[in-house]
Design a protein that fits this description.
By secondary structure, the protein is α+β, with helices and mostly antiparallel strands. It has three helices and three strands, in the order H-E-E-E-H-H.
């Protein structure tokens, strides 16, 4: 049972670490649409939905142009992930670091060595021969 739990824990830990690496290297864009000061829509990866109040600027002539201020605003926030990963090998570690890793690994692996369920510590010893009742000889009685 201990080996099964160890294998399951190892698989879960490797999946979690893979997701951490994936999420730390992934970049994405958060698009938000504001109408005045109020947030109307938020979207990831694509443009946010508009509230439908975008004003179209139409000028019929260059002499008479009326500019109206648009109350809507689109904000795009880019969350950039890590683009470089540092890969180190054991050759680049110092001797002290290698000794620490080896001793940590050795002591950590020994924590998971299980004791078998049917260990009998006195299997190879013979019991003493009882010739007389020892309690009566020593006059020890339970009261």
């Amino acid at each position: 049972m201990c080996c099964k739990m160890k294998k399951v824990f190892h698989k879960i830990a490797s999946i979690v670490i893979a997701f951490v690496v994936l999420l730390s290297t992934m970049s994405f864009t958060v698009n938000s649409h504001f109408c005045g000061d109020m947030l109307v829509g938020t979207s990831y990866f694509v443009k946010a939905e508009s509230c439908g109040m975008d004003m179209k600027q139409e000028t019929k002539s260059e002499d008479c142009s009326v500019m109206k201020k648009n109350c809507c605003q689109d904000v795009a926030s880019v969350v950039e992930g890590q683009d470089t990963l540092k890969i180190t090998s054991l050759d680049q570690l110092s001797f002290d670091q290698q000794v620490f890793i080896a001793s940590f690994y050795y002591s950590y692996i020994n924590l998971f060595e299980g004791i078998h369920n049917k260990v009998i510590p006195f299997k190879d010893y013979t019991p003493p021969l009882v010739i007389k009742d020892i309690h009566v000889l020593d006059e020890v009685y339970l009261i």
